[in-house]
Design brief:
The complex is a heterodimer of chains A (about 525) and B (about 240). In chain A, strands 2-1-3-4-5 form a five-stranded mixed sheet, with helices on one face. A five-stranded mixed sheet of chain A has the order 11-10-14-12-13. Chain A is an alpha/beta fold. In chain A, helix 7 packs across helix 14, helix 8 crosses helix 11 and helix 10 packs parallel to helix 12. In chain A, a hairpin with a 5-residue loop joins strand 12 and strand 13. Helices cover about 45% and strands about 15% of the residues of chain A. With about 240 residues, chain B is of the alpha+beta class. Chain B has two domains: about 80 residues, Roll (Ubiquitin-like (UB roll)); about 150 residues, Alpha-Beta Plaits. Helices cover about 25% and strands about 15% of the residues of chain B. In chain B, the strands form three sheets. Chain B has a five-stranded mixed sheet, covered by helices on one side. A three-stranded antiparallel sheet of chain B has the order 6-7-10, with no helix packed on it. Chain B has a two-stranded antiparallel ribbon with strand order 8-9. The longest helix of chain B is centred in the middle third of the chain and has 17 residues. Classes of the chains: A alpha/beta (about 525), B alpha+beta (about 240). The interface between A and B is medium-sized, with 30 and 34 residues.
């Protein structure tokens, strides 16, 4: 395909659009609230009102305010309807011609939307994820064309390095460095892997990204393949995401058909094939060495590093593994330039970060903000504070590998270093808000139970240590523990943290350690009085 | 052949390129405790007993898989490492049912030896008293899963030395266990050659010879060593 053909597809798509789009969210959150029936009903209502020439109903990706789903947004006016039922559809359509809509109206200018900045999510909720034309009309695949025809692989890597992008899976490793390591690693075959095994409780960023804009991730992977010299890519996605899997399958079919993936991408000598590998429900397979073992068809257990995947990954070949969101950042960086990207964020953490804001918060949903935004802005302005007025106590970041940050530290800017300093981590972007009614010891035990269940069992500190940590926490909650048990808890946390084989075990004590750091009094209040 | 020099516990040690810290230490007569490691099998890195401190690295590294580097400074028995090792052994004892007094391997058990080596006089963790079952369906051998420490030596020896791959691991976390074939009774396994290498490799009394009773286990590891030497060094005579 030539660039002109690509642009023509986009032009055709734009010119065939009706003046009004009724965008109905069909991402998993709204789907589970019944948006499929809403979409059908909206379609019927448009027909019944004879407005087919003026308006069209589009199934779009995440409209972000998930707690108020199903959501419907009218473009270009921007009217937002919340908790829409199929019965309210005729009213929404009637409102286009001056009628009255009985559906609950949302405020598209509220801080929840106003304080957000869209980089990764620029197409999210605007394009139809199951139609490649919709992505192309939004400028899609132009970055891939540019990279292939106007840039050398080294220039692509240089652009990524200059953008300052760091891994969005949580650890924040500089993406450009990783890419150049794989590019320089010797080997006849190389691989690109997209880690979509998002498993943290309460996290749905990657799912939403894939459900809302799957082509963006594929385009980012293809650019990565060109940059590092790989011909094969894998998306490792968890089986619990059927909707995202389906949309990826559709997207792959479409991209292959148009020659945007597969042999001779854009009629260039570059070939890049992407296949899906579906996880079978193990959290540990999000760890890169376990993930690779799983792709190879072996039991998904981690192995000691080094060697790192960049040196010896899939089948011993150099392998680039990045998170969904990291790849989703790439097309924007190539299309608009690294300087544009680096203008967002802080000195050391560039760009934006997508969070899934959940818990005891008024507005729960998908949030994208520049790096360095304070937790207070995210929780109180965007999230609108607590749901029922109970004071907020803490926010949990980074899932089972992260920690709880108390409300008195909410002025901390969200970037990799600041969160690590507070004993938590950026993680992949789960943010769970907790109010004063939440017991932090309960929270610690919840995450420990998760880690205990998800431990692969390969190394002793994680397999047996998490079980004993869970027992000690249970003992504390049941008020049977004494000061000695608290000491043992801390000793064991230290062991599991420093002696475990992989990241799962090494970070499993974080929820306990961070709650001990900020809420030690809650643990102490639960201790049984020593018998005299 | 390029040779590397490094210091282990302040002692200057030489090693071949590509050797691990554990191999270099053993050549120099420095013992680092291990459990899942067995010479001749691929390294597993699971027991974490061989963790050592390396100057300039904040992370502890398993000696069984970490390759020697010129000028490396390794500490194998710091106070911190000793404390970790004791805790790991305590965790192992608390996790299974390790009752030496009624065990076939009493007196010939690596877990028992480790407990003595790390100075474990009592277990500070709660015993879990699991009921993981026992498979005595095989004519010559049996496995008591309650005594299994999941070192996977049986899995690796069966796959890498015997070439049968009868054993593997099923389940995860505390529910992991070694299984034969597709989790069939061992006696019904179609792949097992009854060679007994898993019995020879087992560090505890988990895999035992049928008919043996308390403290009667005798393992002749020289058989395994002979095979490994034959394979790796093409040396067929003892």
């Amino acid at each position: 395909m030539e660039l002109a053909e690509l642009l023509a597809i986009g032009e055709r798509e734009r010119s065939s659009r009706r003046p009004v789009q009724i965008n109905c969210c069909i991402a998993a959150g709204c789907l589970s609230a019944g948006s499929e029936a809403v979409q059908r009903s909206l379609n019927d209502s448009v027909k019944a009102a004879g407005l087919q020439e003026r308006a069209q109903v589009c199934g779009v990706g995440c409209l972000r305010l998930c707690s108020r789903g199903p959501l419907v947004r009218i473009e270009p006016e921007g009217d937002l309807y919340e908790r829409v039922t199929p019965e309210q559809a005729p009213g929404i359509v009637a409102a286009l011609t001056g009628g009255h809509a009985d559906a609950q109206r949302g405020d598209p200018d509220s801080p929840f939307f106003r304080r957000q900045v869209s980089v990764v999510l620029e197409n999210c909720g605007r394009i139809e994820p199951e139609r490649i034309e919709s992505y192309i009309a939004a400028g899609g695949y132009q970055a891939l064309f540019r990279a292939l025809h106007e840039m050398t692989p080294t220039q692509v890597i240089d652009a990524v390095s200059r953008s300052g992008l760091r891994g969005r899976g949580g650890a924040g490793y500089p993406t450009g460095v990783k890419w150049s390591m794989v590019a320089k690693a010797p080997g006849p075959r190389k691989f690109v892997v997209c880690n979509a095994d998002e498993g943290d409780p309460g996290a749905f960023m990657n799912r939403s990204e894939l459900e809302s804009d799957p082509h963006r991730v594929l385009e980012g992977m293809a650019i990565a393949g060109y940059a590092v010299g790989a011909e094969q890519g894998y998306v490792y996605i968890r089986g619990e995401y059927p909707q995202a899997i389906h949309r990826l399958q559709v997207a792959l079919r479409q991209a292959n058909r148009l020659g945007l993936l597969g042999g001779h991408v854009f009629d260039s000598p570059f070939a890049f094939r992407i296949d899906l590998r579906i996880g079978a429900g193990a959290f540990v397979c999000g760890e890169e060495t376990a993930l690779m073992a799983s792709i190879e068809g072996r039991r998904g257990t981690p192995r000691p590093r080094p060697p790192y995947p960049a040196e010896a990954g899939l089948w011993g070949c150099p392998t680039l593994i990045n998170n969904v969101e990291t790849f989703a950042n790439i097309p924007g960086i190539i299309r608009r330039g690294p300087e544009w990207f680096a203008a967002f964020g802080t000195e050391k953490s560039k760009g934006t970060k997508v969070f899934s804001l959940t818990g005891k918060v008024r507005h729960a949903g998908l949030v994208e903000v520049p790096m360095g935004t304070t937790l207070r802005t995210i929780v109180e302005e965007i999230g609108g504070g607590s749901a029922d007025g109970t004071p907020i106590k803490a926010v949990q970041t980074g899932g089972p590998s992260g920690g709880c940050i108390p409300a008195w530290l909410f002025d901390t800017p969200v970037d990799y270093e600041s969160l690590t300093q507070l004993g938590s981590i950026m993680g992949s972007g789960g943010l769970i808000v907790m109010d004063e009614q939440t017991s932090m010891v309960d929270v610690a035990r919840f995450y420990m139970e998760f880690c205990m269940d998800e431990s692969c069992g390969k190394c002793v500190p994680c397999r047996a240590g998490t079980v004993q940590l869970h027992r000690l926490l249970t003992k504390i909650i049941q008020r049977r523990a004494q000061a000695d048990d608290l000491r043992r808890l801390e000793e064991l946390c230290d062991l599991v943290r420093h002696a475990s084989l992989c990241g799962l075990g090494q970070t499993a004590p974080n929820p306990v350690l961070s709650t001990l750091r900020y809420f030690r009094h809650e643990y102490e209040a639960l201790l049984a009085r020593p018998e005299v | 052949m390029p040779v590397k020099t490094l210091t282990i516990n302040g002692q200057l040690v030489s090693a071949r390129e590509g050797e691990t810290i554990l191999e270099a230490a053993r050549d120099a007569g420095i013992r680092i405790p291990t459990l899942c490691y067995l010479p001749g099998l691929s390294a597993h890195g699971g027991c974490r007993l061989c963790l050592v401190e390396i100057s300039g690295s904040s992370r502890l590294q398993p000696a069984c898989v970490t390759k020697v580097v010129e000028g490396m400074e390794v500490q194998t028995h710091t106070e911190r490492l000793n404390a970790y090792r004791r805790m790991i052994v305590e965790l192992l004892f608390a996790e299974g049912n390790h009752v030496c007094g009624v065990c076939v391997a009493n007196g010939n058990c690596e877990l028992q030896d480790l407990a003595a080596e790390v100075g474990m006089d009592h277990d500070r963790f709660e015993y879990l008293h699991p009921n993981r079952g026992l498979d005595a369906s095989h004519d010559r051998f049996g496995i008591d899963h309650n005594r299994c420490v999941l070192c996977t030596r049986c899995v690796r020896v069966c796959d890498e030395v015997e070439g049968a791959h009868t054993w593997d691991v099923a389940g995860r976390g505390a529910n992991s266990r070694v299984i034969t074939d597709l989790n069939q009774p061992w006696g019904e396994s179609a792949t097992c050659t009854s060679c007994g290498k898993c019995f020879l490799a087992c560090p505890t009394g988990a895999i035992f010879r049928q008919g043996s009773t308390v403290a009667e286990t005798v393992r002749d590891r020289s058989k395994l060593e002979f095979l490994v030497r034959a394979r790796e060094e093409r040396q067929w005579h003892v």
